[in-house]
């Protein structure tokens, strides 16, 4: 979004149902009390609502290749992972890269997290005994068979207690490992069933696209850029897409004499979908999320759904934070984004909160190389599942705390603009036994339930900071159901032939 589009978002959340609520924008003032002139014009920015990391082992990557749409996308490496700690409690396993004066009487530091086994060996701050323990834990997480066995046996155990009991890793060294899990839950509530598969994906992704990094971020706006390219590919293939037209009502299914052949061939009647603005379309299948299909809610289905709220804060910062964007390894490309982690206890809490209920705060920081902001600035994306009236202020405090500790800055960088909002997610209810290789969140009941046949409910995008593999698994499950009687199409999921007008040599010939 440009900044003007973000302004529209804040007004639309109050006027019509969307997955977003409580949106607000703040233009921060300079020392003279006027809007900071360093904030650029609206279209100089491309703020993302989905700045997810994409691991090299993500199932999206081969789909982008087989569909040929990768030709229309640019990706940048996710560079170093950093952790914020007051200097006196900075743990082993965190390499100090710079110290800056923090709150009065206390030095604060940003340390680079050893994000691979090579990093652990290279980190001289870790003693030999601790190195052995860490290497055993990382070896387990990287082994495909061993990590599945561990998840089956210890899936419901908390990750910190597992590290302490199985590998004698104490709290000081647990923080870096916990950071790599990207968990939105407090450390004590992060299970082995979540942590070990996430560590497995992290470790096995390193080196696939280049040395020293295992994840990338799309240029020009995160996952929104992938959605835009996918729409373009669909249009070139004969599809039609209309933007910003929600569903007002669904009537049917009804007999349609004008289309008897289609009805007879498919055995499925057509529903009439009325869009915002008055347009009507006929459909055999209607696919959407709970927010887009609110007119055909299913109480039975809702009983099997967990609804979560995530508070987001996005900030435009006046500095490029150059010292935090080194190549993660020799021969690595320049990173376009980095990850900064602030553990519980490093940020001031509202009085009513218990420290044990506070998750880690992750800052996903994008440089101007992503095309999301002007040169010399950065955009910080952060979020929390912490349910509290002051959640957005808590996140803003995390951003300010981090900026006060950035090394090699003569003064702390300034926040020029912030967007705060709440996003509502519908998630499948958790099972008692974790299933890291579960095929899909969509089953036959999801497809046939509801007031009309042919309505398929997908879950909202996961609040995870990395793109969840279940997104594409769910899409594939829907594809296979719709193409159930079409053997040729069923085996061609996300396999597109070269098309004139969409990438490849045909484009050059057409031009």
Roughly how much helix do the residues carry, as a percent range? 25-40%
Structural class: alpha+beta
Low-confidence stretches: 97-106, 259-264, 430-438, 443-452, 505-511
Strand content: 15-25%
**CA-to-CA gap between the ends?**
30 Å
Mean pLDDT equals 82
The number of distinct helices, counting runs of at least 4 residues, comes to: 16
What's the story with the biggest beta sheet?
A: 11 strands, mixed
Shape: globular
**Number of E-type strands:** 16
State Rg.
24 Å
Describe the structure.
This protein is α+β, with helices and mostly antiparallel strands. The protein is 30% helix and 22% strand. The protein is globular and about 70 Å long. The two termini are 30 Å apart.
Secondary structure blueprint with pairings:
Blueprint: H1 3-15, E1 20-27, E2 54-55, H2 60-66, E3 75-86, E4 95-101, E5 107-112, H3 117-122, H4 128-142, H5 144-154, H6 159-167, H7 171-179, H8 192-205, E6 215-218, H9 223-236, E7 247-254, H10 260-266, E8 270-275, E9 280-283, E10 286-288, H11 299-302, E11 305-317, E12 335-342, E13 361-366, E14 378-384, H12 391-404, E15 415-428, H13 444-448, E16 455-457, H14 470-482, H15 487-490, H16 504-510
Parallel strand pairs: 3-12, 10-16
Antiparallel strand pairs: 1-15, 2-6, 3-5, 3-6, 4-5, 7-8, 8-9, 11-14, 11-15, 12-13, 13-14
Helix pairs in contact: 4-8, 5-8
């Amino acid at each position: 979004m440009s900044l003007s589009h973000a302004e529209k978002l804040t007004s639309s959340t109050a006027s019509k149902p969307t997955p977003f609520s409580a949106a607000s924008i703040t233009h921060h003032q300079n020392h003279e009390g006027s809007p900071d002139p360093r904030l650029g014009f609206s279209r100089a920015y491309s703020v993302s609502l989905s700045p997810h990391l994409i691991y090299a082992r993500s199932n999206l990557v081969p789909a982008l290749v087989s569909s040929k749409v990768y030709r229309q996308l640019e990706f940048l490496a996710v560079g170093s992972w950093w952790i914020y700690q007051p200097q006196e409690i900075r743990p082993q396993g965190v390499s100090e890269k710079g110290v800056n004066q923090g709150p009065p009487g206390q030095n604060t530091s940003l340390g680079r997290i050893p994000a691979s086994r090579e990093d652990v060996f290279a980190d001289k701050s870790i003693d030999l005994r601790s190195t052995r323990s860490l290497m055993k834990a990382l070896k387990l997480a990287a082994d495909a068979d061993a990590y599945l066995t561990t998840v089956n046996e210890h899936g419901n155990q908390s990750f910190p207690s597992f590290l302490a009991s199985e590998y004698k890793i104490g709290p000081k060294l647990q923080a870096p490992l916990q950071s790599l899990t990207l968990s939105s839950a407090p450390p004590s509530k992060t299970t082995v069933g979540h942590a070990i598969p996430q560590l497995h994906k992290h470790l096995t992704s390193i080196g696939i696209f280049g040395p020293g990094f295992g994840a990338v971020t799309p240029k020009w706006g995160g996952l929104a850029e992938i959605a835009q390219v996918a729409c373009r590919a669909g249009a070139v293939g004969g599809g039609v897409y209309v933007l910003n037209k929600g569903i007002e009502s669904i009537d049917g299914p009804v007999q349609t004499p004008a289309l008897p052949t289609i009805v007879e061939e498919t055995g499925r009647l057509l529903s009439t979908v009325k869009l915002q603005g008055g347009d009507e379309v006929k459909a055999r299948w209607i696919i959407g999320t709970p927010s887009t299909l609110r007119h055909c809610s299913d109480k039975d289905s809702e009983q099997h759904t967990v609804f979560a709220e995530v508070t987001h804060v996005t900030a435009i910062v006046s500095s490029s934070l150059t010292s935090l964007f080194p190549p993660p390894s020799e021969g690595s490309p320049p990173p376009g984004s980095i990850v900064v982690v602030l553990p519980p206890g490093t940020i001031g809490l509202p009085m009513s909160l218990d420290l044990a209920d506070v998750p880690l705060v992750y800052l996903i920081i994008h440089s101007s190389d992503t095309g999301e902001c002007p040169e010399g600035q950065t955009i910080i994306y952060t979020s929390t599942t912490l349910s509290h009236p002051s959640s957005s202020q808590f996140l803003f405090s995390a951003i300010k705390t981090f900026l006060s500790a950035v090394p090699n800055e003569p003064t702390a960088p300034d926040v020029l603009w912030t967007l705060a909002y709440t996003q509502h997610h519908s998630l499948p209810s958790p099972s008692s036994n974790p299933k890291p290789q579960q095929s899909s969140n969509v089953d036959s009941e999801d497809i046939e339930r509801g007031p009309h046949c042919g309505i398929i409910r997908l879950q909202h995008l996961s609040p995870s900071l990395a793109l969840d593999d279940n997104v594409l698994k769910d899409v594939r499950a829907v594809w296979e159901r719709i193409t159930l009687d079409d053997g040729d199409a069923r085996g061609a999921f996300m396999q597109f032939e070269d098309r004139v007008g969409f990438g490849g040599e045909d484009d050059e010939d057409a031009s």
